[in-house]
């Protein structure tokens, strides 16, 4: 969300909860914690909150579970990239040259 969207959302919250701080200062302070959440998602979370709670929503309630979903998606992509790299490395892998194991054992004076 951008600053205007946060202000718009806070106006909706203020309308339902008179003691909610919807000041410009509150919008600016909270923007950093809400900027990665799409407005539609936050609006839906606030609507659900209004229908189920007598108290104004906190940042975590405005965010809903999307923050966790975004983190899971980031980790899923990172895991896919790692698996892809491992598969690519596996395709490039070749067995050691013949006689390498025996030569290594001989240098270390290990009986095989």
Q: Could you give a quick summary of the protein structure above?
A:
With 112 residues, this protein is mostly helical. The protein is 71% helix and 0% strand.
Give an overview of the whole structure.
- The protein is mainly α.
- The chain folds into 2 domains: 1-64; 66-112.
- It is built from 6 helices and no strands.
- It has helices at 3-16, 24-34, 39-52, 59-63, 66-92, 100-107.
- The mean pLDDT is 92.
Number of strands: 0
User: How can the largest sheet be summarized?
Assistant: none
Overall pLDDT level = 92
Low-confidence stretches: none
SS field, number of helical segments: 6
User: Could you give the order of the helices and strands?
Assistant: HHHHHH
Shape: rod-shaped
Residue fraction in strands: under 5%
Helix content: over 70%
Distance between the termini: 67 Å
Structural class: mainly alpha
Count the domains. 2
Instruction: Tell me the Rg in angstroms.
Output: 28 Å
Protein name: Replicative helicase inhibitor G39P N-terminal domain-containing protein
